[in-house]
Amino acid sequence: MEAYVYVLECADGTLYTGYTNRLEERVERHNAGKGAKYTRIRRPVRLVWAKKWPNKSLAMKAEYAFKQLKRPEKEKYLAQYGIHFPLAQSHSALIVEASKSEVQALTVTSEKRNNASIEADE
User: Fold this and answer.
1) How far apart are CA 75 and CA 72, in angstroms?
2) 3-121 maps to CATH 3.40.1440
């Protein structure tokens, strides 16, 4: 099942990253105070960007990688999609699909990590 990694801008200007297989519903839940604890006290939130991945496992890996970035690195990454901060009030969310090379890169990285883990256990 496909899944999305998404970035929200919170009312205080901070960014929140998550993953879901139901993007619109998830954003609505964040704004209803039923999302992550982080976003509950920073409402309203708005969807800035999302990327669709072929499955939940890859989306989770992509989410983790994005969360490891510092704010300036996140902004630089989003800038390649034409998203610049501070956002205009009229900004509408951009939803893109992961490229085959991105999927392959995450898959290869995961396989290397799993093989290294197996070798360390032996």
Assistant:
1) 5
2) yes
